[in-house]
Task: structure prediction
Amino acid sequence: MSKRVLGAVIVISMLAVVCPGQSFQDEEFGPVVRAYLGYLRNEQEVVDDRVSRHEVSPRYYRRNSNRIRALRQMAIKIARESQNDYLPELEAVAQDEFGLLFERPPQTQALKVGEVFRGTFRFLGTVRSTELFYIFARLDPYEQAELIEQAAKDRSLSQNPPETVKPASENSRPQ
Result:
């Protein structure tokens, strides 16, 4: 093997150790998904820097590192399943943080994937990243408008149900 090839193999191996499964894996995605994954990498660097300066507690560091990992896992799952270069705005919360998203938090046992809460968040599922995170997608304005329109139609139908027509046999009585 030439020295150049050997050098390239060593560099690639070192990158794989330093950035396991990140930069090479990101190549399968479009620019929007790659940008989001880059944003998460940057967020991790900020958290790493803050803990190295003793600006945050080890507990804060672990929670946020786990949250970033959970968001990354969900983003990759969505991108692969949809085969689309689009991600909704994602929120990852632990059970004790539900109050950050909801005034009256839903019961975690009752959560159903795809369910919409308060016309604002859609529950996507859970990700275990050392601890369990509940992942929600913030609905975009078009999705919110669609939900409002559908709710108005549903209310209208429940207030003014369509008239029922009796079968012909009931309308024509023998005289």
In short: The chain has six helices and four strands. The CA atoms of residues 26 and 34 lie 6 Å apart. The first helix runs from residue 3 to 18.
